[in-house]
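Design request, tokens follow.
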């Protein structure tokens, strides 16, 4: 027979359980109501969200996560390009600027990447970052990281030629001219990174399959290679003689195409020539001139009007460029968005601007200034480690190079 105290304890426990179960049922009913929102209403909600809020939407419940996955690409396509930026004063973060909403975001870098020395490029939504840890070159490495998905891959550092005197010198970043990151092979489970040296006539590439660097020297081939790009599963290059070529990874060889109506580049070709692959087309940009490479007719075609498209042109080593339709987010068409960072004569200040150059030269040119926050301690000037266009639609997909 139970004592009065033990009996009252049992009744109290039952009452607490009853109330807990009742609260749980109410919570589940409310959660179910949110989870059962119709797709049309979720589409209306998602149109007013920025990229950070949209990512959080996919974490609410299973049905919202399914909606997030199914309509993610459409959402990303409807948003303007971002500017990704980091200075030497910002050790832990890189920043993003939405040119449509003028909103700024920041993302914290993984601990082992925080003190990266240089960003060698932005490719397929990934930042290619060089980490210099010691005076022992063999212990340096490359990190390739997607700041939105968090996916990251480590590569050994490239074996630079002996003619580069000081590997750790600040001038090192200027010896890089172009780089890209892509998946490799028919399965898309291997990865490839390729880097073009600006002053030394060499292409270097490494695959995650063997994790070893290979080199292609072209100093006896004639002409400087100015840019490299992945297009239609192949690696295309352009040189200072206005020749377009295809690089074959398997035999490590470069084959130039015979194309008609190729223009002559000016004496400062190394600063301005870009290969741009967009919308199933291959372009050559000698700003402000734009050419389309018609591979079926084997000729260069000068572009006099971009129509409803706009060219987003990266600056310097950050050669992430695209031709896209800006009408989906209210941007200007038939113009060139030219991104350009410059330093102010103030401590810790680096200003970024982008210029809009209309194809119709009678229309006025517009300049937009973006002032990113500078973090860090100490005195001195802040220089730029990253300043590039970042295109959200390609952040969830990687260009593929066929293993031919």
């Amino acid at each position: 027979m139970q004592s009065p105290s033990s009996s009252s304890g049992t009744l109290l426990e039952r009452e607490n359980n009853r109330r807990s179960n009742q609260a749980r049922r109410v919570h589940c009913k409310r959660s179910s109501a949110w989870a059962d929102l119709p797709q049309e209403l979720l589409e209306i909600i998602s149109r007013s969200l920025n990229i950070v809020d949209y990512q959080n939407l996919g974490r609410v419940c299973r049905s919202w996560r399914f909606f997030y996955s199914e309509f993610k690409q459409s959402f990303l396509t409807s948003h303007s390009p971002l500017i990704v930026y980091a200075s030497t004063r910002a050790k832990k973060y890189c920043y993003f600027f939405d040119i449509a909403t003028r909103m700024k975001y920041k993302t914290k870098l993984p601990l082992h990447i925080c003190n990266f020395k240089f960003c060698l490029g932005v490719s397929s939504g990934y930042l290619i970052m060089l980490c210099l840890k010691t005076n022992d070159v063999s212990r340096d490495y490359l990190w390739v990281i997607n700041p939105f998905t968090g996916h990251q891959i480590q590569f050994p550092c490239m074996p630079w030629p002996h003619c580069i005197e000081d590997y750790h010198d600040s001038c090192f970043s200027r010896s890089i001219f172009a780089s890209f990151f892509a998946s490799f092979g028919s399965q898309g489970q291997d990865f490839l990174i390729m880097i073009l040296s600006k002053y030394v006539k060499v292409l270097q590439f490494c695959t995650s399959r063997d994790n070893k660097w290979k080199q292609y020297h072209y100093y006896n081939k004639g002409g400087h290679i100015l840019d490299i790009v992945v297009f239609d599963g192949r690696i295309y290059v352009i040189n200072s003689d206005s020749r377009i070529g295809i690089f074959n990874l398997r035999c490590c060889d470069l084959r130039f195409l015979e194309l008609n109506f190729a223009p002559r580049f000016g004496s400062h070709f190394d600063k301005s020539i870009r290969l741009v692959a967009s919308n199933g087309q291959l372009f050559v940009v000698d700003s402000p001139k734009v050419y389309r490479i018609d591979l079926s007719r084997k000729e260069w075609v000068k572009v006099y009007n971009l129509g409803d498209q706009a060219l987003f042109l990266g600056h310097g080593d950050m050669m992430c460029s695209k031709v896209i339709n800006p009408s989906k987010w209210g941007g200007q068409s038939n113009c060139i968005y030219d991104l350009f960072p410059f330093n102010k004569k103030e401590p810790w200040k680096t200003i970024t601007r982008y210029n809009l150059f209309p194809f119709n030269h009678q229309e006025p040119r517009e300049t937009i200034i973006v002032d990113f926050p500078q973090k860090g301690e100490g005195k001195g000037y802040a220089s730029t480690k990253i300043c590039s266009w970042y295109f959200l639609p390609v952040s969830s997909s990687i260009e593929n190079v066929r293993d031919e």
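Comment from the thread starter after seeing the answer: thanks! Residues 1-8, 161-175 have pLDDT under 50 and may be disordered.
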